[in-house]
Amino acid sequence: MKRMYYVGPDVHKQSIYYCVKQGDGTEVRRGEVAARQPVLRQWAQETLSF
Fold this sequence. Notes:
50 residues; alpha+beta; globular
């Protein structure tokens, strides 16, 4: 069975704050990442591959 995850980003010019939750509302991850394309690409590959 696949789990549903939700990602809530708060986007600013220099950084993006995010929270990842499961479908039932359980928080999985929370953090900050620089608002730059190479950094975002790496973050997505590492963070969203669970």
